[in-house]
Write a structure and sequence with these properties.
The chain is of the alpha/beta class. It is 41% helix and 20% strand.
Amino acid sequence: MRAMLLIVFASLLLASCSNEGRPVAEEPSTQEALNIGLIPEQNIFAQLQRYQPLAAVLSEAVGRKVELKVLRRYGNIIENFNAEHLDGAFFGSFTYVLAHERLGVEVLARPVNANGASTYYGLLLVRKDSGIRRAEDMKGKVFAFVDRATTAGYLFPLAYFSQHRITDYRTYLKETYFTGTHQDVILDVLGRKADIGALKNTVYEEFVRANPKSAAELLVLARSAEVPENGLAVRKDLVPKISAALKSTLLEMHTTSTGRSALNAIGAVRFIETTSKDYQPVVELARAAGVDVAHYTYVNH
């Protein structure tokens, strides 16, 4: 009997030693919230209002409260991903490329808009009465960017400058600054604070639908290649069961009335599966802009 107990004890000890140092993926308690970050495409309150119905659907699907966190600027979503204890985020296309490279996050799905597009593109915007119609006309003017971590609001105009042999836009232009949101670019161009602005087409289209008279005052000079819409990506060590539940819920959301209502709030009709390969146009745009993704500094200055 004593020998038998010694054998059992030794077996338990060996099992304990074999597991030592091995990471164990533990599921969070049912009381622990999932934190999902949002980029400041519009003002913070508008962003929260748009995504709250979606968060409610996801909360029910995973059995945990999904809490939304709108970060003050695009780069914060990379900079503070770990500090804010984020489990995932709706990344813009350039922020996803940066976060995938530096944090290892993996995209799950992205929305399809009401017009059937799951992509967006960048615009260069001026007032019609500005007299600006080409790159040469921009010399000595004021340019409004969104953020250094945006595709449409910074990466695209960088590529545009490079294409038109403008080697240093800071000396070519009179002044440049960052608005923080795409919507504020429109307002600043309309309000004559900026002569030219860069932003994404979906925000512009939403704005002119709500303010049709403003469309008559504005002119689009150029547009970028199409890149993926803001997709939900999660941290690489998120429990696989939760990641799978988030993904399947997004992909099936359009099949229920509650899901369709949540989709409508963000201007979408459904979600589609998305992988990192879909972001190749962003990588190519970065290359055209002379940006090294691995070492790029995204802090505005």
